[in-house]
């Protein structure tokens, strides 16, 4: 009986703490007039709503590839993407296959777990909020993100989101590979008309174990010319 009571008290304490953290975040959003609709747009696929150009650069210790592509939201599935060049040359069949896998739209967008909201910093100039993703929104292809800690950085004077940062610091598996860490940064622009944040530049660094060696891979995505079809 005593053991059950202790466990119940611990669970209650955790629930109250999580509620207080979420309440503190909500209060900060209100204080700085942060648009919640725009924040919610971070978890939605822009591919479903916009035409845009994309330059993807993938760099490892031994190679670099630059993919230039255009996305047409009026089309569906694979037809929506046009891979225009790779390293300024015509894409090979292998290039097209790799690009297709990188932009597989069946993978759902990750959603934040509101119970993990935490107020990291609020000094009147910068507001920083952290959270983890809701594991119920994951499938096998992105379940490795369950341990990712995400931070949102806001300009407190304007209430606008400046960037997001994500990190996984413990080892994890991504498909057939073991990874040692992951770090990502996304810089956004705000569209006043549609109240939506759109990524301008995204950089993802990951350290993989391949054939017994640790290999760093950096992927940079640069978005431009957003238009609604």
From TrEMBL:
Residues 84-96 have a biased composition (Polar residues). Residues 1-18 form the signal peptide. It comes from the Bacteria. The keyword Signal applies. It comes from Pinibacter aurantiacus. This is Uncharacterized protein. Keywords: Signal. Residues 84-104 are annotated as: Disordered.
């Amino acid at each position: 009986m005593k053991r059950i009571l202790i466990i119940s008290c611990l669970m209650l304490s955790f629930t109250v703490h999580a509620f207080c953290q979420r309440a503190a975040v909500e209060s900060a959003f209100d204080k700085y007039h942060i648009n919640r609709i725009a924040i919610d747009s971070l978890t939605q696929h822009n591919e479903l709503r916009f035409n845009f150009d994309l330059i993807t650069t993938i760099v490892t210790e031994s190679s670099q590839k630059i993919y230039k592509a255009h996305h047409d939201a009026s089309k569906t599935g694979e037809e929506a993407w046009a891979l225009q060049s790779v390293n300024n040359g015509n894409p090979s069949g292998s290039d097209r296959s790799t690009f297709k896998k990188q932009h597989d739209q069946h993978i759902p967008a990750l959603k934040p777990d509101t119970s993990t909201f935490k107020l990291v910093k609020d000094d009147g100039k910068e507001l920083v909020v952290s959270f983890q993703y809701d594991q119920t929104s994951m499938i096998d292809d992105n379940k490795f993100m369950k341990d990712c800690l995400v931070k949102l950085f806001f300009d407190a004077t304007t209430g606008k989101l400046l960037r997001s940062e994500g990190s996984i610091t413990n080892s994890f598996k991504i498909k057939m590979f073991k990874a040692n860490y992951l770090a990502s940064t996304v810089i956004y622009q705000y569209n006043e008309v549609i109240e939506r944040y759109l990524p301008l530049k995204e950089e993802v660094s990951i350290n993989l174990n391949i054939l017994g060696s640790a290999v760093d891979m950096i992927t940079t995505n640069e978005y431009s010319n957003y238009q609604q079809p």
